[in-house]
Amino acid sequence: MTVISTEDANPWRSQWHLRPDTVYLNHGSFGPPPHPVQAEQRRWRSELDAQPMDFFCRRLEPAWFESRGVLARFLGTRPENLAMVDNATYAMNVVAASFPLQPRDEVLLTDHEYGAVLRIWKRACAKAGAEEPVIAELPLPAESPGQIIDAIASRITDRTRMIVVSHITSPTAWTLPVAEICAMARRRGIAVCVDGPHALVQLPVDLDALDCDFYTASCHKWLCAPFGSGFLYVSPRQQAQVQPPVLSWGRLPPTEIRTWDDDFAWIGTRDPSAFLAIKPAIEFIESVGLETFRQKTHSLARYARQRLVELTRQTPWIPDSMDWYVSMASVPLPPGNAAQLQDELWRQYQIEVPIVDWKGQRSIRVSCHLYNDTKEIDALVSALAELL
Ligand SMILES: Cc1ncc(COP(=O)(O)O)c(C=O)c1O
C-alpha cells in the first residue's frame, strides 16, 4: 500500500479534503471541489433546508442568474447564450434532440470522441432517419493541427450538417484545433458542437470568439465546481430551435418565458446548490491564476509523460508541446488488459488513474491538478514497473 505525504510539499493540497490513502490522478474523470466551493454549496443547501419557500420563490432566481453571469464572463460570452444544466452529457443530449436532422443527413465525429457522445448521436441519427454518424479517423501519431483539420475535412460531404468535436479529447487527452475547425465548418455552412468539459481552465475558452454553434461542458471537472454543474452554450443563430428535454415552468410564475434559456432555469423542484457554487469555483481558480494553473499542471503532466515513456519505451501519439496537451498526459502502454491493470493499481497501490482501451490500444491518462505532485507520479511509475 502506498501512503504518500504531500502536505508539506504542496501549498494547494490543503485546499482539498482528499482521502490520504489514495493517490488521485484522475481529476479528468471526476474533479473534486476544494474547500471554499464545498463550503459555499453547503451554505446554499442550508438556506434551502431552513426556509424552502423563501429560497425557491425569492432567493433562487437572483442567485441563479448571478452565478450564470459570472460563468458567462469567464467563458467570454453573454449570459443569454448559456443554459446551466447538470453536465456535458445533458447538454449534448439537448443539442442532439433539438438539432433538425433530415433523412440522409450526416453528422461527423472524430474517432477520439467520448463513447457516450457517440451513443447520443447514433440515437439522434436513427430517430431522424439520418445516416449512421460518420467517423473521421485522426492521424496517429499526429504532428500538426493541419493534419487534424484535413482528416475532418476529408469526411465532409454535401450531406454533412453537424460536426461534433472535442476541445480536449477524452481517451487520448489531445487538444484539437477547434477554432480552425469552426472556421472551416462556417465557410461550408455546417454547424459545430464542441464537446468541452476538459477545456475549461486547461485552455482559455472564449466562446464568442470561437463562434461555434453549440458548446457543451461540465464545470465539475477542471473548474472544480460541485458535481452536477455544467452548461450548454448556444449561438444566437441556433437558439430558436433549442428545446428543453424537461419542460416545467422555466421561470417561476408570474415571470413569463421570453428567451430560449428561460426554459432551463426551473425544470422542477431540485437542489440547485451545485450551480450556485460555480461562482466560488471561478473565484478560487482565478485567485490561483489561470496561467499559474496551466504552467504548474502542465509541468507535472510533462513529468508524468517523460517518466512513463522512460518506463514503457513507447512513443506518445502527439508532440511534447503545450499546444497539444496541458494538464493531462496520455502515453501508450504495451498490449494487455486495461481494466485489470486499472483495478490492480487501485487494489494493490491505491492509485486511481484511468487505463484506457481505445481502438484496441492500451494507454494511460494521467490527470494533474493543483493538489498533485511529482511524488505521486513517482509512485505510479514504481507501481507500473512492478505490474507491467
Ligand atoms: C470529452 C468528454 N465529453 C463528455 C463527457 C461527459 O461528462 P459528464 O459525465 O460530466 O457529463 C466526458 C466525461 O469524462 C468527456 O471526457
What labels would you give this structure?
single chain, 388 residues, alpha/beta, Aspartate Aminotransferase, domain 1, Aspartate Aminotransferase, domain 2, 2 domains, seven-stranded mixed beta sheet, three-stranded antiparallel beta sheet, 12 strands, disordered N terminus, binds pyridoxal-5'-phosphate
Can you give me a brief rundown of this structure?
With 388 residues, this protein is α/β, with parallel strands linked by helices.
Question: What does this 3D model show about the protein?
Answer:
This protein has two domains: 13-25 and 289-387, Aspartate Aminotransferase, domain 1; 42-284, Aspartate Aminotransferase, domain 2 (3-Layer(aba) Sandwich). The chain starts with 22 loop residues before the first strand and ends with a helix. The protein is 39% helix and 14% strand. It is α/β, with parallel strands linked by helices and 388 residues long. Strands 2-8-7-6-5-3-4 form a seven-stranded mixed beta sheet, with helices on both faces. Strands 9-12-11 form a three-stranded antiparallel beta sheet. A two-stranded parallel sheet has the order 1-10. The site of pyridoxal-5'-phosphate has 12 residues, from helix 3.
Second-tier CATH architecture of the largest domain: 3-Layer(aba) Sandwich
- Mean pLDDT, to the nearest integer, reads 96
Tell me the major beta sheet. 7 strands, mixed
Strand content: 5-15%
Main sheet strand line-up: 2-8-7-6-5-3-4
Quaternary structure state of the chains depicted: single chain
Bound compounds:
pyridoxal-5'-phosphate
CATH superfamily of the largest domain: Type I PLP-dependent aspartate aminotransferase-like (Major domain)
Q: Which outline best applies?
A: globular
Q: Percent helix among the residues?
A: 25-40%
